[in-house]
Specification:
Layout lengths: L2 H8 L3 H8 L7 H10 L24 E3 L6 E5 L9 E8 L3 E2 L8 E9 L2 E5 L2 E5 L4 E5 L4 E5 L5 E9 L3
């Protein structure tokens, strides 16, 4: 993208952008946000270092869990910082339990069954999955899960959304 194209998208002059590029001036935070939006990037892009481009979540640092009275437990596997375009969880549904209706949003979801049986209802259809099966669906449609079996069901669930 040229400075002129960026200037048009960000509503900034080419000469001003040239000064920013050559470190002759420092943009305000709101101007930097306009530039980020024009580049279809998150504001934090301008502040990340190479060391921050990868994040590790250790098993003892995952968030969530299963209390004895819980029917559905969700353990977040991805950090809540960094690139939020992809979220991953380990979800455990106890026998004969059903999730709350999951939020409908502009996203894609992928579910991989590790143990047990999972029934996914999405878009008016019902799909019964067993270990090793997976499903990919558009999360804009109403959807929810249930474990109609007699054993706990464990899945890896991921959601990919657009940049926020």
């Amino acid at each position: 993208m040229t400075l002129a194209e960026l200037g048009d998208k960000a509503k900034l002059s080419t000469s001003y952008l040239s000064q920013v590029e050559r470190d002759k001036t420092t943009p305000s935070l709101s101007t930097l946000a306009d530039i980020a939006a024009a580049l279809d990037a998150r504001l934090r892009y301008f502040f990340e270092t190479e060391a921050e481009l990868a994040y590790v979540v250790r098993a003892d640092g995952a968030r969530g869990g299963l209390a004895p009275e819980d029917q559905v437990a969700c353990l977040r596997l991805t950090p809540e910082i960094g690139n939020c375009k992809l979220e991953m969880y380990r979800v455990t549904l106890q026998p004969h339990s059903t999730s709350e209706p999951l939020p409908t949003l502009a996203a894609e979801e992928f579910v991989f069954v590790v143990t047990g049986e999972l029934t996914v209802r999405a878009g008016g259809e019902s799909f019964m999955l067993t270990p090793g099966d997976s499903i990919h669906y558009d999360a804009k449609q109403p959807h929810y899960w249930s474990n109609d079996g007699d054993e706990p069901c464990s899945v890896i669930w991921s959601r990919a959304t657009a940049w926020l």
